[in-house]
Amino acid sequence: MRAGVFDSGVGGLTVVKSLLEHSLFDEIIYFGDTARVPYGIKDKNTIIRYSLEAVEFFKNFDIDILIAACNSVSAYAIDELKAVAPFKVSGVIQPGVKALTNKAKNLDAKILILGTKATINSQKYKRLLNSQGYYNINSLATSLFVPVVEEGLFEGDVLKSVMNHYFDGIDEPDFIILGCTHFPLIKNEISKFFPNATLIHSGEAVVWFLKNSFNIPKSKSQTSLKLFASENPDKLKEVAKKWLYNS
Ligand code: DGL
Question: How many structural domains compose the chain?
Answer without folding.
Answer: 2
